[in-house]
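Lab notebook, bench 4. Still working through the backlog of constructs that have no structural model yet. Next entry is a single chain of 501 residues. Request: give me the structure tokens for it.
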Amino acid sequence: MNDALIARDRASWELSAAALKIEGRAFIDGRYVAARSGRVFDDISPIDGKIIGQVARCEAADVDAAVAAARASFEAGAWRRSEPRQRKRVLLRFAELIRADIERLALLETLDVGKPIHNSINVDVPNCADCIAYYAEFADKLVDEIAATGPDDLALIRREPLGVIGAIVPWNYPLIISAWKIGPALLAGNSVVLKPAEQSPLGGIRLGELALEAGLPPGVLNVVPGFGEEAGKPLALHPDVDMISFTGSTEVGKLMMRYAGESNLKRVALELGGKSPHLVMADADLEQAAAAIAWGIYYNAGETCHAGSRLIVHEQVRAGLIDAIERVARTITLGHPFDPATQMGALIDSGHLKRVLAYIDSGIAEGAHVAFGGRQALRDSGGYYVEATVLDAVQPHMRVSREEIFGPVLAVSAFREHAEALQVANDTLYGLAAAVWTQDMNLAHRLSNALRAGTVWINSFDRSSLATPFGGFKQSGFGRDRSPHAIDKYVDLKTIWTAFH
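Model written out:
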């Protein structure tokens, strides 16, 4: 099916997009509903700056309704108390329905985010389905524990769902990150209120309907679109929400912590910003490194939390590596997202376009220089595009070295000694990911052990599996998505002690 979809040309995709029925209402207690205020907002596509459709502008009253539905479904227990094999069957069916709906979901993802249709079809929708299926398989494999006690006692340690989970997801990978949260949360027996980013609400809304069709009881998965201050904040402050699982900026992550403290001391799990470094030694395979570095910063137009946005390279190979990166960048086609040949699409909105261009200007003003790129692209499209960019001669104190740009901009710094490279790499408030490039495996492991990051790649970048945990150190947040470890966030442990007399 994917090959047949990819074979379609741009005109065919644009016709399908024009004919697509856009559902922008909230999904609460198993049905689509308008915002109680009747208010809507325009969903604008970054492809061309045009309105896709209107979306319910949910506020506190709508969040109250969604949380009440989630709480009622949790307390009724139809999902929470369902047999493991039934839970597995429903989640596997959910994954199948996502796969069957690939054309619609891919269109929604590309319209909303501006990513290439090729990526939506081959990466985002399949990974969303795979994640739901991955956690479905745990349903009948999780077991309780027996603790070592005296001969006259029995201590049973059980995992229990937390209750109502508020899942707040960003706009860069809406389907994938939604699945990272709702997959393990639903597996554990929780009910969920999903709040998609206002820039990309459509895929999340569709997931609510597909989950109901798969057999999830009404109220177990609810979706409330809206703005952060109007819908996200009330969700995070809600006294009947037991946990907030948030992916987004460090700035907003700090607000999540505050809201938890101001309300009911709810659990919080945060996957936040990044400024991930590549450490390239003099003996590295430069062609291999260049390909991974280029794709690591230009994939998804650089709108990736762990994008390798800093290059810390030995001065002996700096110039050669930049040349190699430019050669790779020239092969990455920047274009209209519905053109199957496009590999790099639009930035999310006009405000973010201005932000990325302002960072490039700030780097130049502070003394860096543009090795290539650095300009707005496809101006006549009406959309929001920036060229693949490298800023060279970046010093560690510069904003482009220290702050998350979240665009296709690579900041290059040179070093002489390994200790210097490590110091610069760790001199950041973030700690999401990093990479080391060298033929010396002893050095590679010494550096990887010393790097303060949740994921460190050696002679590779952005390789992953659902079996590996993802998350950060320091102000990149805490808690892990993906892998069996993600399940732990959505459960609590209860000890049941029995004494035999």
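Notes after review: The longest strand covers residues 153-161. Residues 2-272+477-495 form a domain with the Aldehyde Dehydrogenase; Chain A, domain 1 fold (CATH 3.40.605.10). Flag for follow-up if needed.
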